[in-house]
Write a structure and sequence with these properties.
Blueprint lengths: L1 H23 L2 E6 L7 H16 L4 E6 L7 H10 L4 E5 H4 L7 H4 L9 H10 L1 H11 L3 E16 L14 E4 L3 H9 L3 E4 L2 H10 L4 E4 L1 H6 L8 E17 H6 L2 H35 L3 E3 L3 H19 L4 H9 L3
Parallel strand pairs: 1-2, 1-3, 5-6, 5-7, 8-9
Antiparallel strand pairs: 3-8, 4-7, 4-8
């Protein structure tokens, strides 16, 4: 009897220690995204990881898998939907295939740098952010962070870029985004959907003449080695959206959710400021490389807007009307 009592006590102690150990085990969340080291999106998620771990005293830990280690943003977003990955970051053009709500952001000239702070405020505190968060919930994901990606500009390897006429007949690399393809077509360009990882070689070999992207990403990817000309067209704006599996989010305690929300908000503020600095650095890198950058006049920009308007109107009909209206309100 005595032996049984001792054994029972020993077993209780072991179970107690095991339960305590489990309780102390940190929550580990895996985050996959496609961006390269040093990119403005990448450093933003590094800041998010730092803040989450500091605020939770490392009871929540973020494992980062950048640079397509777990696949493209489409692949990681599908994995987050399925619950095989906790967190995914995807560009808004690639998210348009998951929900038409994101296509609104992809429309040409739907927003501009002059109204950037109004856009941020609407995303962080206003109905626009609420509507996009609700759109993500409908596809099984919870939105944590709207990361700045930036404004795309047209660049070319061999032909000077100035006004809309200079873009005519150029073979331009695009993503699979139907909006991006339509914009290039309306400008008289020949769109060629090519994977991002193959674009440098395509430019180098003359398979394509041009592409459109942020100066920051082009500099990070060393495309400046083959580019000769650029124009500040700012024809398209993109964000990277940090998304979490909805069931995983709902399983967290209110305290854990609060830590992730607070860290995401602080990381967003920091990342947006850092994006400005990185873009300025990239502009200087373009100049140092001898790349000719044409600065559009007001009339030249107005012509680009007018020529791409048919693409805007065609795809605007596919976008939820409330989201497009909320987005347009930030530009007044």
């Amino acid at each position: 009897m005595r032996k049984r009592t001792v054994l029972a006590l020993a077993l209780a102690l072991i179970l107690g220690f095991s339960t305590a150990a489990l309780a102390e085990r940190p929550l580990v969340l895996r985050l996959g995204h496609p961006m390269a080291p040093g990119n403005n999106v990448t450093v933003g998620y590094e800041k998010f990881k730092q803040l989450v771990e500091e605020k939770s005293h490392r009871k929540i830990r973020i494992q980062l898998f950048p640079n397509c280690q777990l696949g493209s943003d489409r692949v990681t977003t599908e994995a987050a939907q399925a619950g095989t990955l906790d967190l995914s970051s995807s560009s808004t053009p690639n998210l348009a295939s998951f929900s038409k709500a994101y296509m609104a952001i992809d429309l040409p000239y739907v927003t501009s740098p002059a109204h950037q702070q109004a856009l941020y405020k609407a995303l962080d505190e206003g109905r626009l952010g609420d509507a996009l968060r609700e759109a993500s919930r409908k596809i099984g994901l919870e939105t944590l962070m709207f990361s700045e990606f930036g404004y795309r500009n047209f660049v070319a390897a061999s032909k000077p870029l100035t006004d809309a006429a200079s873009l005519m007949n150029l073979k331009v690399r695009t993503t699979d985004s139907p909006v991006e393809v339509a914009v290039a077509t309306e400008l008289g360009m020949n769109p060629a959907p090519i994977a991002w990882g193959e674009t440098y070689t395509a430019l180098q070999q003359g398979t394509v003449d041009a592409e459109g992207n942020t100066f920051s990403l082009l500099n990070d990817a060393r495309h400046t080695e083959v580019l000769k000309y650029a124009v500040n067209s700012e024809h398209n704006y993109s964000m990277h959206v940090l998304l979490m599996n909805k069931k995983k989010w709902d399983s967290l305690t209110p305290e854990q959710q609060g830590i992730l929300r607070e860290a995401a908000r602080e990381a967003s503020d920091w990342q947006r400021k850092e994006s400005v600095a990185l873009e300025e650095k990239a502009w200087q890198a373009f100049r140092d490389r001898g790349i000719t950058i044409h600065m559009l006049t007001d009339a030249e920009r107005a012509e680009l807007k007018a020529r791409t308007r048919p693409a805007y109107e065609a795809f605007a009909r596919e976008v939820p009307a409330d989201i497009l209206q909320l987005l347009e309100e930030t530009q007044k």
